Amino acid sequence: MTSPILIALRRLSAPDRFADSLRVLLALGGVMLFCGLAGRMDMMIPLLLGVIAAALAETDDGWRKRVHALVGTLVCFSIGAFTVQLLFAWPWPFALTLAAGSFVLVMLGAASPRYATITNATLLLSVYTMIGMDQHSASAHAFWREPALLVAGAAWYGLLAIVWSAVFLQQPVRLALARLYASLGEYLAVKARLFEPVQDLPVAERRAELAQCNQHVVAALNACRLTLIDRLDRRHPHPALNRALTLYLAAQDIHERASSSHYPYAQLARSFFHSDVLFRCQRVMQSLAGDCRARAAAARLGEPYRDAGRSGIALAELRAALEHRRHLQDPPPAELMQALDRLLLNVTRLHARIRCAEADPPQGEDNALQNPSPDSLREAWGRVRLQLTPTSARFRHALRLGLAMLAGYGVLRWVHPEQGYWILLTVMLVCQPDFGATRTRVLQRVVGTVLGLVTGWALLKLFPATPAQLALTVVAGVLFFVARYRKYLAASAAVTVLVLLAFNQVGNGFELIWPRLLDTLIGGALAVAATFLVLPDWRERELRLLFARTLEADAAYLQQILAQYGSGKRDDLPYRIARRDAQDADATLSAHLSSALSDAAGQRLDDEHALRLLAASQELIGHLSALGAHRQVLPAEPGNLRLVDTGMALADHLHAMAASLRAQSGVPQDPPAQIDVPHGNEVQDLMAAQLGLVHAQLPALGERARHLLQARA
Fold this sequence. Notes:
Elements: H1 4-12, H2 18-38, H3 44-56, H4 63-87, H5 91-108, H6 113-134, H7 145-167, H8 171-192, H9 203-229, H10 239-258, H11 265-271, H12 277-301, H13 310-326, H14 334-355, H15 377-386, H16 393-415, H17 422-430, H18 435-462, H19 466-483, H20 488-503, H21 513-533, H22 539-567, H23 573-597, H24 607-629, H25 638-663, H26 682-712
Helix pairs in contact: 2-3, 2-7, 2-19, 3-6, 3-7, 4-6, 4-7, 5-6, 5-16, 6-17, 8-9, 8-10, 8-12, 9-10, 9-23, 9-24, 10-14, 10-24, 12-13, 12-14, 13-14, 16-17, 16-21, 17-21, 18-20, 18-21, 19-20, 22-23, 22-24, 22-25, 22-26, 23-24, 24-26, 25-26
């Protein structure tokens, strides 16, 4: 039985950012304590900046991989810091290296998310080095002093993070599973809103909202997979980690069932307008959403999941309501009743999957995970080389950032060479891959900086004593890391307070207020100008290729599904990869469209077209997911073989549409003929119905593809 003390500690550490915040608190507090006891406050700022850079470079790995990542991070930090130190006094070489280095570091991030995190932090630490050397005659010290202190601060945080990861091995896994099941709960809650018997149900808008939730689910699935890959040991399996792997694989199956679509919702709403059936469907989905949230809470606290029983009651009531409708004198059309029967079957199995998610998988089932990290430097370079083209969003972002950093350096040399390197810091932090995100980040940065300057000024006045200011510096640093993902405005305010309080220990913090504000405004303006003027990232340019990638991934997913109707359901690695690729492509397309719709200044994209494209893509993946969720062995009969051939022809047509989008040629006009299959067993009827729904989506998909090609022309 778990002890009350352990339960209390788990509840205390349950919040997502608790562990990160506590590590930052210990790291910053350790720096303050060391500098205070040693009487070396002049070392505090570079050590603090090194801690912050290392914390931003942190990846959610196991402790063994953290050791390798820390060594690589410290090497990159050392190269960046000493390069700045060497060229700082030579403006022209420094300017060219700054632009080229910014471009190279962003491009190296194409190798993997881990590379991207480290390279972004390296660029940040390089700017920190410039700021440190610019303050209070840092050049009067030894050549190696500033880089060494920055790297020492980073090493101190890295060692602390490694020890933490070794001691609290299971905590990141529990939190990753909790975020995953919480996102599934939110997805099901939004999906429930589609089951409303109203005549003018805004299906496209509901689909757009559901697509945003799906992005969060896909991101949580990918993050959880990475967390497990870094900790699973096939030679010495850990029971808790194996249970976590089982819960992750169950979440994939839950997501497939949750995203299934068995019939057009608008037609269901019209047919059951005077019935309570859809309300009961909605109640079942809401109950299942609550079950997923309960699983998330249990995973977060490391406690066993307990089924509250509400979903079982709601399912029984839905089953009774359907039986009542079936025996009316004027029952609904058989086609609609079959669709609701399949929906009932799906949510029943969904309920069972959520309730028994930790059940051991069938004997011999493939539970391997695909590692997205490159296996060698050659593979990493190959990924980078693929992005070296103006059609790549990463290439355009790297070019813009490099030019913006070059322009920022020119402006700071012209406006105020002293204390002007905050311009480069602002450019680096607010320049985003698209115009809308950059504009939003600039506004948040400016407002946060103003609030931080006002708050910092007040704190300097209210707490003139050094110990109080040091304590407040640590608090501001912790608040920055708590808010940096979800509340960037608050994070900007917190880090501004940290800067004022920290620099007040080696000089006069009040002197930084106006330069900091001016530099933030200049840096934000340069970032917006670069994003708007340098290879402007109008949404319609990428949308064609993203839609093509989505159609290709959906076609590959359909082919894997059809193969399993011949061999039987098995969640092996090829099937899970195809399913994940389809969901990833759909989530990327949804994110692109959502960003375009929220960016009125830079989209050049018709709102109605975007919503229709989003709805068509969502309906297609929903019908495919339903086909995958009901996988069973299909007897090798002539009618069944014709069904499989029809499905393969649909997949080929999706591939052809994708190829025409890539080649900017004519979209295939004639979809494959839909065959009439005589009514047979349940599996045959279900497969024929779902393939018919996929076939019905082809005209809408073709229309969207032709619209994109016409807009491109």
